[in-house]
């Protein structure tokens, strides 16, 4: 058996869309009841995990067993870690300013506006970004050098994201750092180590789906869209807009790479000495 089971994959794509929608509709019900739409951020990783698990079960007998297991496990580990981290970070906090600002634009019923612009949009993004997970699971080709490289890239991305999140959490938990800008550890090399790691690991999952030219082209939208979301979409751009007026942030931004990890730039005054 060679290649990709395209017919079975097409059916899986339909089921994957339904699963992603179901998870985000459940989040909508919770968010509406709590009047706290930031719960959608917790549901984000859970939805990816649900799509990956469903895909693993449905692809039995179609794709290479090792590739199916690797791509499903990699997605679930990432998704559940991210959801648990966001849940811990947001505990005891009110609504995310991003959603407050978004819902302020609503004309008419804010609840249905939130459903369309927050939950259903994120369900569509989960389905689109999870394409490599679904495509890789239906490839009968054994894991080769490119697949191993993909796992290495995924692991590097997950490590970067997890370490960055941990460093920031420890920094913010220390009362002595209140009002200060986190510029230590990975945060000295990039202003967004968590976003960079997130992007990197999806490029790794993409490599796992590259078993032929058609699968590579079909799956390419995933890491491109994820990277765009993190850099010019709702990630880096909105966070930096929120942080712009914080004391010391302009100086931090001047010496620290915006996304790709790079050695910190020296202060202009120091270079003149």
TrEMBL record:
PROSITE patterns from the UniProt entry: S5A_REDUCTASE (PS50244)
Record carries keyword Iron: no
Membrane spanning stretches: 6-30, 42-60, 113-133, 139-160, 200-221
Alphabetical keyword list: Membrane, Transmembrane, Transmembrane helix
InterPro entries, sorted: UstE-like (IPR010721)
The protein's name in its UniProt record: Steroid 5-alpha reductase C-terminal domain-containing protein
């Amino acid at each position: 058996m060679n290649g990709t089971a395209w017919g079975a994959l097409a059916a899986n794509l339909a089921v994957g869309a339904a699963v992603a929608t179901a998870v985000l509709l459940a989040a909508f019900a919770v968010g509406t009841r709590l009047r706290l739409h930031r719960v959608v951020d917790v549901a984000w990783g859970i939805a990816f995990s649900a799509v990956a698990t469903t895909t693993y079960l449905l692809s039995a007998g179609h794709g290479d067993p090792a590739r199916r297991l690797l791509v499903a496990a990699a997605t679930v580990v990432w998704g559940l870690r991210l959801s648990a981290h966001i849940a811990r970070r947001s505990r005891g906090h009110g609504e995310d300013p991003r959603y407050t600002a978004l819902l302020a634009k609503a004309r008419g019923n804010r609840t249905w506006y939130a459903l369309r612009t927050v939950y259903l949009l994120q369900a569509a993004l989960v389905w689109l970004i999870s394409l490599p997970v679904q495509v890789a699971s239906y490839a009968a080709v054994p894991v080769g050098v490119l697949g191993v490289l993909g796992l290495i890239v995924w692991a590097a991305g997950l490590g970067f994201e997890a370490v960055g999140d941990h460093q920031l959490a420890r920094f913010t938990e220390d009362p002595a750092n209140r009002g200060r800008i986190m510029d230590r550890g990975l945060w000295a090399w990039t202003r967004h180590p968590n976003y960079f790691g997130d992007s990197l690991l999806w490029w790794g999952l993409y490599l796992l789906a590259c078993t032929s030219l058609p699968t590579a082209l079909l799956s390419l939208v995933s890491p491109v869209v994820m990277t765009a979301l993190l850099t010019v979409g709702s990630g880096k751009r909105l966070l930096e807009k929120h942080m712009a007026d914080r004391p010391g942030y302009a100086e931090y931004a001047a010496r620290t790479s915006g996304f790709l990890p790079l050695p910190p730039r020296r202060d202009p005054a120091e270079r003149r000495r």
